[in-house]
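Q: Hi! New to this. If I give you a protein sequence and the SMILES for flavin-adenine dinucleotide, can you show me the bound structure?
A: Yes, paste them in.
Q: Okay, here:
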Amino acid sequence: MIPVEFDYQVPESLEDAIDALARGGEDAKLLAGGHSLLPLMKLRLAAPAVLVDLKRVPGLRGVAREDGTLRIGAMTRHSDLEDQPELGLVSHAAGLIADRQVRHRGTIGGSLAHGDPASDLPAVLLACEGSVGVQGPEGTREIPAAELFQDYLTTAIAEGEVMTEVRLPALTDYGFGYRKFMRRAEDWAMVGVCALVKQAGDGTCEDARVGLTHMSSVPLRATAVEEALRGSPLDAASIARAAESAAEGTEPPGDLNATPEYKRHLARVLTRRALEEAAGFTAA
Ligand SMILES: Cc1cc2nc3c(=O)[nH]c(=O)nc-3n(C[C@H](O)[C@H](O)[C@H](O)COP(=O)(O)OP(=O)(O)OC[C@H]3O[C@@H](n4cnc5c(N)ncnc54)[C@H](O)[C@@H]3O)c2cc1C
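A: Thanks. Here is the predicted structure of the protein with flavin-adenine dinucleotide bound:
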């Protein structure tokens, strides 16, 4: 399929990219890896008149550590993250996105800005309680993960703003796990679950974070699971009991692959497995 004709601009600075977006107005779109936007354009579900490609804007790619925070440039590719296992959950989850070809093009900024509830990294940002930094004509601002994902393919990033970086607490004293269920290898998640667990000195669970992928029109936290596990012994029985609440408050979309009820079942099973992985009972 061939997209509708569009103008293509490749600014060499962030300021020029913001100017180009402002000039294009609602008909302009940023282009990062193109692996979500271009398929939509080819299907003619999106028809921007102007594409502003971020590939030559300096300073948007790479990872820096600062006072316990990971600062990941928005144009950092999934494969860059996958190749740095010391980044923990975000590296592990990035390595499970599609295949290496997609991971070589897709970026963390594109994935988070696109706001697809089937994408893997939004739930990771949410569970880590991270944020994104954006810059626009009015200056810079920070959007916490809990406010970023507003609805299906809709985020709090305003028209004219560019996401410049992703901020994640390093969470080095947490174990982590990610479980994803799909019909074919390298597919999008029918359901995905990421888990982070911090163990106290007496073997109980000091903190638990669980993020759900594709269980609603936005990524979700499984707060009932987290509350059930905090303060409990971090053993198989407590994890199994807590995981039973994984589907509470979810509204998974039914589709060709599965009914909502089956997805709720998957959420419970995958939550138990992701928590077991995070607690060190099973390997990834
Ligand atoms: C075959 C295939 C399989 C895939 N499987 C998975 C999967 O299993 N899991 C998964 O998570 N993803 C999957 N993806 C999606 C992939 O991860 C995409 O690369 C990603 O979702 C979008 O990133 P991108 O850099 O390609 O963004 P683009 O497609 O370039 O852009 C996506 C959207 O974000 C906006 N945008 C991009 N960058 C910025 C920025 N810096 N600031 C503001 N807005 C911005 C664009 O304007 C556009 O609206 C798959 C893609 C393909 C083609």
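A: The radius of gyration is 19 Å. Let me know if you'd like me to explain how to read the tokens.
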